[in-house]
Amino acid sequence: TMEKNYVSMFLLLVAISCALAKDVGKKETKETTAKPKLPQTLSRGWGDQLIWTQTYEEALFRSKHSNKPLMIIHHLDDCPHSQALKKVFAEHKDVQNLAEKFILLNLVYETTDKNLSPDGQYVPRILFIDPSLTVRADITGRYSNRLYAYEPSDISLLYSNMQKALKLLKTEL
């Protein structure tokens, strides 16, 4: 086992030095500085090419200052409904393209903000918040007992709700 540890440590050091050596050769260009490449852990599989915010506070700040609506996805890693919705969301080209017009946040924990659980703390649920920091209670899914729930079969409804959130933005603000 001692030998295995040494080999593992050696391989780790080789991998790190290779990664560092690659970065040294890169020159800073306009392309690399324009869009920061975020670690893909923030997407949690909801769309790796999208830019996700890390916290609710950051998302609110960005929404307000960019005048873009905020889309918050509440989900859990071990929830089969969340996983099924995530798969459809990530594979849906139109949803992914439209999502670029939003400030995005996906949460695997509940926030203390009661506005984000207007009708309960269930997952998956998706809420839209406009740049005036108002939760859009008028943009809901099709379930009367869980207003902000979406199932994989509801992806086209989610897409039209995303369009609605953007349209409301233009007419109201």
From TrEMBL:
It comes from Aptenodytes patagonicus. Its main location: endoplasmic reticulum. Residues 1-21 form the signal peptide. It is found in: Endoplasmic reticulum; Secreted. Belongs to the AGR family. Pfam families: Thioredoxin_7. This is AGR2 protein. InterPro entries: AGR/TXD, Thioredoxin-like_sf. One of its GO terms (molecular function) is dystroglycan binding. One of its GO terms (cellular component) is endoplasmic reticulum. The keyword Kinase does not apply. Keywords: Endoplasmic reticulum, Secreted, Signal.
